[in-house]
Amino acid sequence: MNIILASTSTLFGGEYLEYLKEELIQLYKGIDEIIFIPFARPGGISYDDYTAIANSFFKTINIKVKGLHEFENKKEAIDNAKAYFTGGGNTFLLVKTLHDEELMYVLKHNIESGKPYLGCSAGSNIGGRNMKTTNDMPIVYPSSFDCMELVPFNINPHYLDQNPNLKHNGETRETRIKEFLTQNDIKVVGLREGNWIRRVGNRITVEGSEWTRIFEPGNEPYEINEGSEL
Amino acid sequence: MNIILASTSTLFGGEYLEYLKEELIQLYKGIDEIIFIPFARPGGISYDDYTAIANSFFKTINIKVKGLHEFENKKEAIDNAKAYFTGGGNTFLLVKTLHDEELMYVLKHNIESGKPYLGCSAGSNIGGRNMKTTNDMPIVYPSSFDCMELVPFNINPHYLDQNPNLKHNGETRETRIKEFLTQNDIKVVGLREGNWIRRVGNRITVEGSEWTRIFEPGNEPYEINEGSEL
After folding, report:
1. Does B140 lie at the interface with A, CB-CB under 8 angstroms?
2. What does the longest C-alpha to C-alpha distance in chain B come to?
3. Which of A114, B36, B40, B170 yields a CA-CA distance of 20 to 30 A from B61?
4. B91 within 8 A of B125, measured Cβ to Cβ
5. Residue B13: pLDDT band with limits 50, 70, 90
6. With bands split at pLDDT 50, 70 and 90, how would you rate the model's confidence at B87?
7. Alpha carbon of A35: minimum distance to chain B alpha carbons (Å)
8. CB-closest option in B43, B141, B158 to A179
9. Helix (H/G/I), strand (E/B), else coil: B89
10. Distance CA B85, CA B37 (A)
């Protein structure tokens, strides 16, 4: 496999995908066209508008972007594609659409055969075992929470440390993930913004400028640094 | 109906349910025993421990608390009870358990017949039309997102305004609710901590010290103040 699962598409104050540019040139080496999966629709943006945003970045590295929604036969489009990018947004909407159109496992098999894949945020969630560690609001009801399992754990993108100045009693992210662990025997990678998971063949590492917080059933959470194997 | 749906059980720096004490004395007037529904299990706490926390408050207003989990026949226990309280925690866990044990509509019918109900946080989410505006992590997969519809809208508890100082690209609460509105034709009440919804008969008002933010399909969000009818 040859994949990147990133916490976010955009760093605070940065441009779309800019901080990943050098990595993406490596990921998609030799490829001149990718399929963009726009189903997560952040803020309800249209598929066309979302695809145009992806295109505005990829043209800077000479890669053409086609939206998956543009194809009549989407399974065939996935099978024929050379590489993929799934953008962020609402994970429930993304997973529901992929299951309803029976595309989740078509995509999985193509990525497992070695075609490059980039996921950001919701697009990274679907690279995990299931979507049960998303931060998103359940605005639609998917037929299943199962995902592609491109890595043998779950991802919590946009991982956020507790803000000691916040006078608020909603659960912290850490509390939420610990609640997940009471119900699931699955490791969770708390991926701070600026970090990404890189899988090349069977080697899975965490990359980026921040430490990464690991949650495992039965253990206290701990931190690993850039380049650590997962 | 005679219900309170509160944003939170506990104000920042306050004691459990303390800020609602006078309201709860009114809500449960003439009642000496209630059933507590502990299924949301915040932080994975046991049903017994969670029920003990509820009890520690209710004994200060001379009300006995029995955990629903203590009963062999839970449907019968609900039918026989005089009043209810559902505590906060994980809404997915709460809704899954209520549907799996076929208790959601038994509870609904009893509350609709006039028995007092208090919900906090997840316990308020289940008073709405469905749980699609919860903030919680989908740690388990419920058989349905449908809830009791004690009020003709959805609730977003712990409603939180954007923090302009946060250098983070995760979605704001407002963005999440607007995404919900792209997929659902249902009003959402953004209930800040300190506020609650009060329904007496057919009159539904918002109460508490904060303004309340209302999200409706096709309209810009707007604010209403204490005592406004919903």
Report:
1. yes
2. 52
3. B40
4. yes
5. confident
6. very high
7. 24
8. B43
9. coil
10. 6
Question: What is the pLDDT averaged over residues B67-79?
Answer: 98
Cβ neighbours for B61, distance < 8 A, ≥ 6 positions apart: B21, B24, B25, B28
Name the residue in chain B with its Cα closest to that of A131.
B138
Q: Domains along chain B? A: 2-224 (3.40.50.880)
Q: Which residue has the tokens 């949301």?
A: B40
From CA A95, how far away is CA A143, in angstroms rounded? 9
pLDDT tens digits, residue range A150-195? 999 999 999 998 877 777 767 889 999 999 999 999 999 999 999 9
Q: What is the pLDDT of residues B157-192, one digit of tens each?
A: 999 988 777 777 678 899 999 999 999 999 999 999
Comparing alpha-carbon positions, the chain A residue that sits nearest to B145 is: A141
Listed residue (B121, B168, B91) closest to A161, CA to CA: B168
Q: What value of ipTM does the predicted structure carry?
A: 0.94
* Side-chain half-sphere exposure of A13, counting CA atoms within 13 A: 4
Q: Where does residue B122 rank: exposed (0-12), middle (13-18), buried (19+ CB within 10 A)?
A: buried
Beta bridge partners of A5: A119, A197
Q: Which whole-number Å values give the CA distances from B138 to A30, A130, A144, A188, in the listed order?
A: 39, 10, 11, 14
Residue B162's pLDDT is 82
Distance from CA of residue A50 to its chain's centroid?
Answer: 16
Phi, psi (degrees; rounded to nearest 5) at B45: -55, 150
Answer whether B135 touches A (CB < 8 Å).
Answer: yes
For A138-207, the three-class secondary structure string (H helix, E strand, C coil) is CCCCCCCCECCCCCCCEEEEEECCCCCCCCCCCCCHHHHHHHHHHHCCCCEEEEECCEEEEEECCEEEEE
Residue that has been written with the tokens 């299931």 in this structure: A130
Separation CA B26–CA B30 (nearest Å): 9
